Amino acid sequence: MKLSSLIIARNEETNIENCLKSLYFVDEIIVILDRSEDNTEKIVKKYTNKIFKGSWFCEAERRNFGLKKCKSDWILEVDADEIITEKLSNEISRCISTKKYDFFYISLLNFVGKNSIRFGWMACMAPEGKFCLFKNGKKNWIEGSVHPSYSIEGKKGPILSNPILHYMSKNISDLIKRFNRNTSLYSIDLKNKKSLNKYLSLRKIFSRFIKCYISRSGYKSGKIGFLISILSAIYPYVSAKKAQSDEIEI
């Protein structure tokens, strides 16, 4: 069975080469450049000539565009700030040789700087894992400007043992920038809502914080876990306030 890897990138010159190096085991690398203005394309050309450029403001649309460009039997979706370890690559190769399953879930190990943060995450800031390994034609992205929903068909395989290394933020400042970007993107989707009351609920802020800090064990991550819990808690509120504003910067 052959494997395509799909990367969606925008101005990822500081991250993408490490990602590309880790994909030595795949048969095809597809890179979708979305409004990229830095040296990302120059770096990518060293690893693949299957580069497609365009402008998409909806994440679901650009991901579906990329899926259609993949020609292999299986697809591995990775982000430019993610790295596939050798142990994971071997596991992926074994998984795609099976005819029993149609898709697999792979955990993410999220990093802020050089520190891996294992506890306290919600998907709004960084998912704990994703269904990113699947047979071609089995997955379709549906809607959403950030962390869009999707449909996936077939039989689910076991969770892979090894995680993807996700170097999501260089430092705390970069983490805050991620929060600001994601809330701005989410606010675009919220503008279509008839009512934003549930997103502006103060009670929901408190319950989300408890979920991250206590239920998801954010306290085990120390001070950064406390910060992540706060950002996750206020995420819907900040997004809704931006949706009410006429000024949304992305």
Walkthrough of the structure:
The chain is α/β, with parallel strands linked by helices and 250 residues long. The protein contains seven helices and eleven strands. It has helices spanning 16-21, 40-44, 59-69, 86-95, 172-190, 202-215, 222-244, and strands spanning 3-9, 28-34, 51-54, 74-79, 82-83, 103-112, 115-117, 129-135, 139-143, 149-152, 164-169. Strands 1, 2, 3, 4, 5, 6, 7, 8 and 11 form a nine-stranded mixed β-sheet that branches. Helix 1 (16-21) links the parallel strand 1 (3-9) and strand 2 (28-34). The radius of gyration is 18 Å and the shape is globular. The protein starts with a strand and ends in a 6-residue tail after the last helix.
Write the SSE topology:
Elements: E1 3-9, H1 16-21, E2 28-34, H2 40-44, E3 51-54, H3 59-69, E4 74-79, E5 82-83, H4 86-95, E6 103-112, E7 115-117, E8 129-135, E9 139-143, E10 149-152, E11 164-169, H5 172-190, H6 202-215, H7 222-244
Helix pairs in contact: 5-7, 6-7
